[in-house]
Design a protein that fits this description.
Blueprint: H1 3-19, H2 23-27, E1 30-37, E2 43-44, H3 46-54, E3 61-73, E4 76-86, E5 93-104, E6 107-117
Parallel strand pairs: 1-6
Antiparallel strand pairs: 1-2, 3-4, 4-5, 5-6
């Protein structure tokens, strides 16, 4: 599997959870010790991810485009993305997202997630 396929597999699961407003499903895509930085203070692990996404408005959807990817080791892939979060009651929020996807056994999960606003 190439880096784009790895990232797409992980990010499609993330997107499905975000689009369904299913915080626990989103959190399941992250490692037990993941560093998560959305647009609020950072957290460690899936519980913080679930809490963050539970606080997001109903109807929020995520669309992403992979801009760059790198295979750092056999079990670690870097992704740099453009993400558009759309809402039912406000303008779309466009951000950049950097992630590290880590393979644990046969599953890839997000070990690091860092959002920055477009300037």
């Amino acid at each position: 599997m190439n880096t784009t396929d790895i990232l797409t597999t992980v990010l499609d699961a993330w997107k499905a959870g975000v689009d369904a407003h299913a915080p626990e499903a989103v959190a399941d895509v992250f490692t037990a010790d993941a560093i998560f930085q959305g647009l609020h203070p950072y957290s460690i692990g899936p519980a913080g991810v679930a809490e963050y996404y539970a606080s997001q408005p109903l109807g929020m959807k995520a669309d992403y485009k992979i801009l760059e990817s790198r295979q750092l080791t056999d079990d670690l892939v870097l992704g740099y993305l453009e993400v558009a979060f759309s809402f039912t009651d406000r303008p779309t929020l466009e951000v950049f997202l950097s992630i590290l996807a880590q393979r644990n056994d046969t599953t890839w999960k997000i070990a690091h997630y860092q959002v920055s606003k477009l300037g």
